[in-house]
Amino acid sequence: MAHYRASESKREQFRRYLEKSGVLDTITSVLVALYEETEKPNNALDFIKLHLGASGSEPADAEALRLELADLQQKFNLLVEENKELKNRLMQYEPSPDDGAAE
User: Can you give the pTM of this predicted structure?
Assistant: First the structure.
C-alpha cells in the first residue's frame, strides 16, 4: 500500500508540474479546437501537431533571425545590382564573341 501512495504522490507532482508550466492548458485548448471543428480532419494527430506548434511561443532568437534575413536579402539585392552594372561596364571594354569571330 505504501508503494501505491508513493506512485500517487509522484503522479500528483507531475500533474502539478504540467499544470504550472501551461502544458495542460495548451493541450486542452488544442483538443477543444479539434472537438469544435465542424469538419473533422482526416488525421487528428497532424491537426494537433499543427496547433501545438502554432500555439507555442516563438524561440527567443526568432526575431533576431528575421532581422538578419531581411538584412541579408537587402545585401543580396545590392550585390545583384552591382553585378549587373559591372557586367554592363565589362561589355563596353570586351568585344562580344560574335564580333571577334566575324573579323
Answer: 0.45
